[in-house]
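Retro notes
What went well: the complex prediction finally ran end to end.
Inputs used:
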Amino acid sequence: MRVAVDVMGGDNAPHVEIEGAVAAAREFGVPITLVGDLERVKAELSRYDVTGLDIEFQHASEVVGMHDSASDAVRKKKDSSIRVAFELAKNGEAAAVVSAGNSGATMAAGMFVLKRMKGIDRPAIAQLFPTMVGKTLVLDVGGNVDCKPIHLVQFAVMGEVYARCVLGAASPRIGVLSNGEEESKGNELTRETSALLRETSLNFVGYVEGRDIFNGMVDVVVCDGFVGNVVLKLSEGLVETVGKMLRAEMKASLLSQIGYLFCRKAFANFKKTVDYAEYGGAPLLGINGVGMICHGGSNTKAIKNAIRFAYEYALKGVNDQMAEKLTESFPGARDREQEAS
Amino acid sequence: MRVAVDVMGGDNAPHVEIEGAVAAAREFGVPITLVGDLERVKAELSRYDVTGLDIEFQHASEVVGMHDSASDAVRKKKDSSIRVAFELAKNGEAAAVVSAGNSGATMAAGMFVLKRMKGIDRPAIAQLFPTMVGKTLVLDVGGNVDCKPIHLVQFAVMGEVYARCVLGAASPRIGVLSNGEEESKGNELTRETSALLRETSLNFVGYVEGRDIFNGMVDVVVCDGFVGNVVLKLSEGLVETVGKMLRAEMKASLLSQIGYLFCRKAFANFKKTVDYAEYGGAPLLGINGVGMICHGGSNTKAIKNAIRFAYEYALKGVNDQMAEKLTESFPGARDREQEAS
């Protein structure tokens, strides 16, 4: 069982991807296939001692850039590293794909090559957020801008299985992101989604608010990809700004500069808690395979952890459990939705 | 020109409201009318030295609770403090209303009693967010869950005037909140809103992402009230969680506890930057009058500053400028939208 790493897509490619892959192979014993321009990959890899590591190569002559359209990965650049990586997964030569490239293109390539899982209309990108008492999984944070209720229900099922199988939550609590906890709140989408979720076997707790993403009230939060993306970028931006503000204040006086030296470790621990690199990447849920989407600016640690999570995901057979949960959770809801639409 | 303060609505009413009102009268010379249960108001007020302050009373026998429906403020509780406060504004006995009560009820009462401004279909609640280089005004963060493009255009006009007249931005930059900066991103609502905004005389810069709310890239961000509410609650929750995480880390070792003592001032300055109490309340824009909505858990400082901003808002005749800008900004857009719908 190998992990195919698209080494050409990220902002600091292929350096960061290859360093992260070497680290994952060494620390976690993950068998790796590096996918990209063979000459560049070999040149970069020569900088590391890879003795005893299971690292293979697969040449890909093209790269999907950050400003290419998602469909370029599918239609035009057939020999792009991301497309080739998913082809390896399709052919059984890899069990998972990790990429720090254009996330829209990664999503499109994954869906095009591996196809959607049965029972899933819209694959979703799921992102982990740190809380005081664990982590909250939010989906979709990615591509699905205009969603129907049934899509959010499918997100909930996928999120439940991921939280249970990969994150270790016993009976994951599911919430629908809304503008208030009362049932009277929400918009058309959230109200219909709630009604459907109540009929499933999921541990659905109702509406949650923006603040609840960070207080550990639920394990899984579902929303459409527009709102999810705002949530993701807002959180990243706010943590970054808070960090900058604190640094500026710390530098403002000699006293606080001295104080900062004393609490440097506390700050480092805090940074580790909120650092996306600890979680690596965001899984693309709902395809027939495993895709892990990393931040374009990922560092080595993020790539390494993303490879580790992708490997675990594949090893644990999460997708099989998802398929099972999909049929068991809401046998009736799907048909009714289709009748209604 | 007086400010009517609903002293019954907040979580710590009437204590906090009255202390805040006394402080605003003393520090900024704002003439105040306290609206609420006369007996309780007088009992509370007797604890302060109000010599020389212009403070009047208006009795109101009812209170709209946090769990009452918004329409209760309008239909059932006609002698509620929030309703009576807006009646004072309607009769010219007050130029502005400040409340820390049920925000939905405040919005409903304001709209019902004072009516919507000509050219505005949906009044909006606007919230200030701190950045490294100033503040960003986001609207709507409140009541308007399912919006049409023309509503967001009206938000943009109101936000522009508020940013210019109250916050002092010379030529406020306006952004539409979206899931990416590229024109190809966004949902149906944001795409149509952008097309309309491009035809106005506003300084419209295009799409902004969640992170841009905190980096000072624009002065005004428009979105529907569902997304805006998620933004507001998420930001409050994240800042709170970050604070808790940092405190926990600081307490974890003696070294960092000592360090904390040295940088206490830096933390206090930081807290001041992100503290909502500095900005007081969120203006309800688009009614024929001035309404300032405060957090239910507002402290004295928040109430004081909200009264100050409400007073300035009224003094500067912001609503007249809004009316002017509305007709000048997009003479054509409104008609087209109406034809289309």
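What we learned: The longest strand of chain A covers residues 124-131.
What to try next: split runs per interface for comparison.
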